[in-house]
């Protein structure tokens, strides 16, 4: 998979790309690259934003700046791009990113993520240059960089070999193996801590009963979730 992240702050991702599952994925041949909107802006002095029509506080990232960055990267008219690869604009008000979407993205050959800043993108970026507008939750971040890392993390850990232990990626919260429910609780040593004992059944060695118990706890949590 090839992931391109367009951002005004590529330095934010230095730490992220050092993390083990990301490094594993890169070693397996996946690509994660960062493109700085400022490098290709057609405006003077690295300008990328402008004041909003209609007035109001804050600055808006210009559509021609995003267009120029996409054109320089892909060598085609960016209007054609969403038909060729998924282009995700990150926006607080977008479609909610979830595990099902992460799985869908993990199956794509290539992804483009557009990180906003300030008041966000000119709406024509969402309408004409992106194929999807996604949000990681109903709160407002200062920029799309952390949101892009959330998306990349959730997608990359689903790529075969990225985690290094395949089993754990199959039976996790919201996975089909758990019928979309949150994962069951985990315990490790000590078996008793300050009077709180680990559930007896987990020490029983009876794998079938353990599996049943875990499914039941997972369903319970699913039923309790909002
Ligand atoms: N004025 C906007 C907030 C802009 S925040 C509003 O009220 O919705 C600046 C940038 O941060 C956005 O363009 C987007 O790229 C990113 N961002 C902020 N919150 C986000 C969220 N919950 N999910 C995804 N991206 C987010």
Summary tags:
single chain; 226 residues; alpha/beta; Alpha/beta knot; Trp Operon Repressor, Chain A; 2 domains
CATH architecture of the largest domain: 3-Layer(aba) Sandwich
Percent of residues in beta strands?
Answer: 15-25%
Mean pLDDT: 96
What's the total number of strands?
A: 9
Distance between the termini: 34 Å
CATH H level of the largest domain: which superfamily?
SPOUT methyltransferase, trefoil knot domain
Bound molecules: S-adenosyl-L-homocysteine
Question: Which H/E pattern describes the elements?
Answer: EHEEEHHEHEHEHHEEH
Strand order across the biggest sheet? 2-1-6-5-7
Structural class: alpha/beta
Number of domains: 2
Which geometry do the CA atoms define? elongated
* CATH domain fold name of the largest domain: Alpha/beta knot
CATH class of the largest domain: Alpha Beta
Question: What percentage of residues falls in helices of 4 or more residues?
Answer: 25-40%
Model regions low in confidence, pLDDT < 50 over at least 5 residues: none
The biggest beta sheet reads:
5 strands, parallel
General description of the model:
The structure is a single chain. The protein folds into two domains: 2-156, SPOUT methyltransferase, trefoil knot domain (Alpha/beta knot); 170-224, tRNA(m1g37)methyltransferase, domain 2 (Trp Operon Repressor, Chain A, Orthogonal Bundle). The chain is built from eight helices and nine strands. It has helices at residues 20-27, 63-74, 81-84, 99-106, 123-129, 144-156, 166-170, 207-224; strands at 2-7, 31-36, 49-50, 60-61, 86-96, 110-114, 132-135, 192-193, 196-197. The strands form three sheets. A five-stranded parallel beta sheet has the order 2-1-6-5-7. The protein has a two-stranded antiparallel sheet with strand order 3-4. Helix 4 links the parallel strand 5 (86-96) and strand 6 (110-114). It binds S-adenosyl-L-homocysteine (SAH). S-adenosyl-L-homocysteine is lined by residues 90-93, 115-117, 119-121, 135-137, 139-141, 143-144, 147.
């Amino acid at each position: 998979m090839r992931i391109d992240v367009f951002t005004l702050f590529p330095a934010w991702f230095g730490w992220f790309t050092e993390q083990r599952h990301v490094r594993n994925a890169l070693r397996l041949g996946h690509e994660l690259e960062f493109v700085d909107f400022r490098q290709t802006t057609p405006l003077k002095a690295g300008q990328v934003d402008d004041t909003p029509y209609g007035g109001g506080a804050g600055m808006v990232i210009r559509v021609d700046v995003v267009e120029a960055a996409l054109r320089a990267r892909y060598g085609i008219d960016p209007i054609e791009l969403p038909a060729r690869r998924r282009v995700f604009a990150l926006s607080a008000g977008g479609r909610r990113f979830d595990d099902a979407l992460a799985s869908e993205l993990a199956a794509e050959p290539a992804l483009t993520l557009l990180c906003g800043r300030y008041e966000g993108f000119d709406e024509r970026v969402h309408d004409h240059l992106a194929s999807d507008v996604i949000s990681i939750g109903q709160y407002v971040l200062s920029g799309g960089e952390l949101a892009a890392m959330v998306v990349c993390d959730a997608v990359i850990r689903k790529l075969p070999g990225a985690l290094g232990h395949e089993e754990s990626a199959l039976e996790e919260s919201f996975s089909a193996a758990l019928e979309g429910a949150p994962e069951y609780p985990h315990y490790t040593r000590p078996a008793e801590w300050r009077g709180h004992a680990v559930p007896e059944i987990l020490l029983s060695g009876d794998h079938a009963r353990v599996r049943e118990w875990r499914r039941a706890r997972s369903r319970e949590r699913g039923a309790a979730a909002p």
